[in-house]
Amino acid sequence: MLADKINSYQESQKNIDKSIKYPTPAQYKAEFPFLKEIDSLALANAQLNLNKAYANFFRDKSVGFPKFKSKKDHHRSYTNNNQKGTVYMENGYIKLPKLKTLVRIKQHRPFFGLIKSVTIFQTPTSKYFASVLVEENE
Length: 138
Known about the structure:
Elements (H helix, E strand, L loop, with lengths): L1 H11 L27 H20 L16 E6 L6 E3 L2 E3 L7 E2 L9 E9 L5 E8 L3
Antiparallel strand pairs: 1-5, 2-3, 3-4, 5-6
């Protein structure tokens, strides 16, 4: 997605062309089969993050043009939205989309409310952590 944005930017070199229709994340799955293993909402979040970074570049040039992730940076993460109960927690386990089994977790703080999204990230020491965004009713 970033490569397509870079190519279109190099062609225009002036400003954002609103008439350009960029492919949806699902259309990249034909060219890159490994994307079929990833939940569509995670791909949509990646596209939203790219669009936000691209818009920030045009708003303020000092932000810098969006770049590809570095191979030297070992911080990997993805965000997935909870849509109709695709993400839930029960009895020390969390259910994530596209995984057939539940993942055992150590929950540090109990919460009450609706899970909005979960971000899974891996540290350079290969430990995994989940950050859960919850909407609580007061």
